[in-house]
Amino acid sequence: MKVNGVAQTATVTTALLAKAESINHKTLYIEAENSQYKFRLKLISDYNNSLNSIPLGNYNVDNIQTAVFYAEFNILFKLPTGNTASYHHLGTVLYDVTSCDSNQKKVTASFSCFLDNGFDDDFYDSNVLIPTTVEITEGNIDNIEYTVTEY
Fold this sequence. Notes:
Structural class: mainly beta
Helix content: under 10%
Number of helices: 0
Strand content: over 45%
Shape: elongated
């Protein structure tokens, strides 16, 4: 993926499909990180069946009212103190889930998003540049294996 035009790679630290039939939701949550950032991705679909997968197709932030095929993305900046900071609000996000294998519990998708921190200028937090906007392009989730939890 690229963060504001700069290529980044990240290691997946969490990949979980949470199924909750009682509220008619499945949520795929993936967290990944590198030396600069933590990335948090979330895809929500309706429960639709007991399979250990989410439906294929497009997920975006605009579906928040129905929570069907809804998506989120967060970026946290790693600070020299060991803490992380999140300043940006999601503007747009689009995921295209092209594969989600219920048996192997693996997902593949592409994504892009735009985030804004609401300030007029870039600023520094603990000597880390926090840009006014963050644009994620060429994002890929490629055969990420996930665990399943039923609530």
